[in-house]
Each structure stands twice: as C-alpha cells, then as structure tokens.
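STRUCTURE REQUEST FORM
Protein name: DUF6729 domain-containing protein
Source organism: Favolaschia claudopus
Requested output: structure tokens
Priority: standard
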Amino acid sequence: SRISADDLAALNQQLDYINEHDEHGDVATGDQEINESLIDEVFDNLESNQTAAEVEFEASEAQPGSVLQNQLRGVLKRLLKEINKYNMPLCYRRGDFFDRPPHPVFALRCSLEPTQLYWRKVFIWLPNLLPGCPSTFKCTCGKPLIRNGFNDPIARRVRSMPADYFLLTNRFLCPPRRQNNPGCGRSFQGTDPHILGQLPLFVQRAFPAYITARAAVSKLVMWQMLNTFSSRLGPAKFSGLVSEIQYRTHAETELMYISAANHYRQFGVKQFSAFDDPHGYAGSPPSTPYLKGLFTDYTNANRIYVDRYIASLPLTVASGDHTFAFLKHTGGLKGEPIFTAAYTLMNEHEEVRGHCFVPSKSMTVLQEMFQGVKQGLQDANNLPTQLFYTDSPQRT
Ligand SMILES: [Zn+2]
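Status: completed
Returned output:
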C-alpha cells in the first residue's frame, strides 16, 4: 500500500525531530557502537556465579562456637520462653518483627565487653503466630500440617545494609505417622512460598527478603540491585558499595567501643574484633558472583511478569533492528551457534516490545513474532502500529 500524504508529513516531522535532537549524530547515522558491557558484566558465567554463591552462603553461616552462633542459641531459648508465657515473641508484642540486640550506646553503659556489639538483628518469622494466620496450615496434598520445631543452623543470614541480619523461622510437617489421617511426609520451612501463600496478602508483603536455596538478600538490597544493574553501576561496583557500608558500620561500632572505654575510664579492655573474624564480628559482604547469581535467579523467577508487562506495551511507532553483540552468551549445539542474531522491537518510548533470537537476517523468520505482537496490541486495547522504522527494508 502507498504511504499517504499525512503519513509522509508525520514521517518527515519525526526525521526532523531526530536531526534536531540527536546531538551525537548516533541515531541518524546508525554507526555508533552500543556499549553492551553491562550485559557482559551480569551474564558472564552463570554456573560459576551460582557455585560461588553456594560456597559463600555456607561460609557466611554462623560458625560453631562463634559469637553469632551463641547469640542465635540465646535468642531461640528466650523466644521459646516468651512464646510459653505470652503466646508470642516479645518483639511481636512490641509491634516489631526484629529481635534486636541492644544499641552499642546502651550495651556499653552496662559493660565494656565487645561481644554484644557483634550481634545482628534477628527477623522472627513464625507464620502460625502472625495476625490473620489460618488455624492450621495445609500441605500441598491438602492435609493439615503440624509445627515441627526449629532449624539447625538456627537462622539464615540475610545480606543487607548497613549490616546483615538473621532470619529465624520454624518448620512444618505433614506427619506420615499421624494416627488418623496420616500425612504425606513433606516438610516445609515457615519461609516456604506455599506457607506464605496461606497468609493474608498484607502479612505476606511483610516478608523481608528474597531467598533461594543458596542465597538470601533483603528486599532493600534486591531493589537497589534492580535499579543499579540496569544502569552504569553494575554488580561489581554494587558489591563494592555493600562492602564499603558494612566495613564502615563495623568501624563506627569499634569507634563507639573505644571511645566508651575512654569515657568510662576503662583501660586494657579487650581488642575489638577484626571485620572478618568468623568467631568475632564475622562480617562477610556479598561478592560480585554471589549477587550476580541471585540477580539471575530473581530474573528467572519474575520472567513471566516481565513478559506480561512487555506484552501490554503499545507499539504505535515501532523500530526494529538486528543485534549481534550478546549472541556470544548463548549456548550452541556441538559448538555450533544456533542463532546468528537477535531482533529487537522498540516502541515510541524506547521500551523493548518484542525480542527474539533468529537463525538468519531474513524477515520471514520474524513473521510469528510480528503476528504475536499484532495480537497482543489488540488484546491490550492498543492502537495498531502506525509507523515502522527499519534500516533494512525487505519484501516478503
Ligand atoms: Zn502432605
């Protein structure tokens, strides 16, 4: 079909807009190399990132006999007493999820012993004691679960800022030896999505962390990662940032300790622990591979939402082009690459509206994608595409 006079005028107007606003001339000439190093940085080696995360996760758990393990033992013991007496942990009664160690200022008033200054906050997540919880949680098989004690290690470390904290939860069991109505034997952590899903939404949303089998970060850190990984501040710099803040927190605490000793005229006090002494302060900031592994897991888990969102976007003005740079990150068959390029469709807001890997630069292989996009625009009540920019027009 022929282009109408109106369309031509609109097209000319858009070309003028590009000429006037393209200060580096890179849109108009199309020869500017796009820096894809950010993608390189996140997706360089998925498997080794995940192995690194696993090793690091284990190393960061409270070591036997360490200050942190003793803290957690003490917390659990006290928690059980509190539950016996008040039917809930005292932190819940105060309106807080965190069982908090005393602030250094108050801890040092009582004693110039550094141990308590190494303690971390402990987030107490006991689903059966939370507001709005069901009278019994159900197994995936439909039968009622029973509570099944606590964990060993007692709590998981959650990477966060300005310092890590611990996440303490209980376990549930579908008891296979129950007299009447024996269960299937499956057991759950209180943090399991299946358990969380049985709480009211407003309580679910209070869960503080993203956890995988091998890693855990606070929601705050994950949200910061989502913001920074998509810009110029990639994983390595972000890991540096977390580390810097954790070291700084340690240094500030040490300064309070020494200065308190001075104030209270206590001489010859114990030396403050080094940041990374596993039996003392036990600092362990997340490494770059750890964060990358976690980010990849998060992205995989949320992909369906991202895909749905993309499918709802308009494509009134489209621009499509092939790209080759990150193909080196895709797998092949017996060493032979399957795809030679990727094709990306952007809309008028520079949002990606469609993306696929292609075996050749021929437009015929893209037919299915374009049909999907057309259907998606209809389904989401968007206008059909009015204008399409491409650098290699082809007849099909
Ligand atoms: Zn069951």
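Reviewer notes: The pocket of zinc ion is lined by residues 139, 141, 143, 174, 183-184, 186 (CB under 6 Å). The chain has one domain: 33-311.
Form closed.
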